[in-house]
Design goal:
Layout (H helix, E strand, L loop, with lengths): L9 E5 L3 E4 L4 E3 L10 E2 L4 E9 L4 E8 L11 E7 L12 H14 L2 E5 L11 H14 L9 H6 E11 L1 H15 L7 E7 L16 H14 L28 E7 L5 H13 L5 E7 L6 H4 L4 H15 L5
Parallel strand pairs: 7-8, 7-9, 9-10, 10-11, 11-12
Antiparallel strand pairs: 1-2, 2-3, 4-5, 5-6, 6-8
Helix pairs in contact: 1-8, 2-4
Length: 326
């Protein structure tokens, strides 16, 4: 007698990223590996995990260069708040992909980084990730007077040089953090700049190269429906379309913006569209865009030692260390 249970029936199949079954089970097909915080001798960077939201049991991973690298032991360092990608539904701040990237960037730029983990969809739909990320930013801001819970930030952070960044869905979050900071300024925090890497933005009307691959466009739209099922406006929801009618890009709460796009990325044209709309919005800051020729989405994480990835890292580090106001 065969006692094998029948295979669970799939409700939503968004391979190779995620599957959701009719019984409610969620199967993440990638981004599940994690590595511990540590001292990385290759980059000379220390990291540790802290709890920033006890209510939701959420952590961030902090990174700091070995202070022996600094000629001035009392030198305050810029702060980078980083949001990982993964379509709002996969990956974590503790994956080897992001751990290695942040170690390398912190070493190259000599900054303190706070890599934010957030609740993921579909169990916690958008905008949960954005709310968690704002909570993390407020936690960072709680150290402004040197009396916060984390000594690395109390001792070494320069809160007049704060940056937000992220890739893909994390870039989407970084944009929204800039918008919220423009509305609800965090006391004592100067968000100088934002770096958006291959930002995950969409829109109901196709732009540029989005028209060339209808199958890919449908897949990406399906991923958005999975992560924000309550949205009545679909791909024109303001959480995924930052330039939809009524958005106020002019109130973006930073002085400088750097956008990276990749030539062969489905999201390339949407990144350029965002860049153009931000320039036209009346925002008084300075925005730059860099396109990596011949590359795919988040190639710099997949192949971090390739020439274009190294160039991206150097450009990002330069942006984080440029102290002139735009």
């Amino acid at each position: 007698m065969d006692s094998t249970e029948p295979a669970a029936e799939i409700a939503i199949d968004l391979s190779p990223t995620i599957k959701v079954y009719k019984d409610g089970k969620v199967e993440r097909l990638k981004g599940n590996d994690i590595v511990p915080a540590s001292f990385d001798p290759k980059t000379n960077v220390h990291s540790k995990d802290i709890v920033y939201s006890p209510e939701n049991n959420l952590c961030a991973r902090l990174y700091i260069p070995n202070q022996r690298q600094n000629q001035n032991q009392n030198q305050k360092l810029p702060v980078l708040v980083y949001f990982h990608g993964g379509g709002f539904c996969i990956e974590t701040a503790f994956s080897p992909t992001y751990h290695n990237y942040l170690n390398t960037l912190v070493s190259e730029a000599t900054v303190i980084a706070v890599s934010v983990d957030y609740r993921r969809a579909p169990e916690n739909p958008v905008p949960c990730a954005h709310e968690d990320s704002w909570t993390a930013l407020k936690w960072v801001a709680s150290h402004v007077n040197g009396e916060g819970p984390e000594d690395w930030l109390n001792r070494s952070a320069d809160f007049q040089r704060v940056f937000c960044s992220g890739d893909s869905a994390g870039a989407n979050i970084a944009h929204h953090m800039g918008m919220r900071h423009g509305r609800e300024i965090l006391d004592g925090v100067n968000v100088i700049g934002i770096v958006l890497i291959h930002p995950y933005f969409l829109g109901r009307e196709a732009v540029g190269n989005e028209t060339a691959d209808a199958k890919k466009r449908d897949w990406v739209a399906g991923l958005w429906r999975l992560t924000c099922p309550s949205s009545s406006s679909g791909c024109d929801d303001p959480w995924i379309n930052p330039v939809v009618a009524g958005s106020d890009l002019a109130s973006l709460g930073c002085a400088r913006m750097l956008v990276f796009v990749a030539e062969n990325d489905f999201l390339r044209s949407r990144g350029w569209f965002y860049y153009d709309k931000l320039k036209e919005s009346g925002w008084r800051g300075n925005v730059q865009i860099v396109e990596s020729k011949g590359e795919q989405h988040v190639f710099h994480l997949i192949n971090p030692t390739c020439e274009n990835a190294v160039a991206m890292l150097e450009r990002t580090a330069s942006f984080l260390n440029h102290q002139e106001k735009a």
